[in-house]
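=== Discrete structure encoding ===
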Amino acid sequence: MASGSSSNRSMESRTGRSKQRYNSKGERLVAGVVPLTEDKLYVLLIQSTRRKGWVLPKGGWESDEECTEAAEREAWEEAGIIIRIDYDLGEVVDSRPPKKLSREAPKALYHFYEAVVLSEETNWPERHKRERQWFTYSQAKEALCDRPELLHALELSTMQRS
């Protein structure tokens, strides 16, 4: 699946929150993907930059893009993957306890999409700070056990459970 070219995609990750969308409850709107192989046997997880462990590609939905565009952008910036979105998995509520929330990490409302990975690029914006790895369903469930919102998104997907 790897290819060397990143075509016309930006090699800079978007930073800051100036264009960040929030809903009427003050929740940060986040777009994410459950990136699968075509046969749905494997999901691609990436190394978290803030804490140890693996996560799904996700990030802030900004005011100058549609939610699907934000999900595709985050997949590119964080995982270096070109994807085809197949399903809207809907909203997933942030289940972190209040003591884990802060101004820097406010409560979020996630919107996840199931996607097929069309290519894994060798050069991408966050390659220097993230690893990526393919997991089976049971391996991914274990890897995401401390992130119930991400585990819920995985469970909403049509990934093979064997």
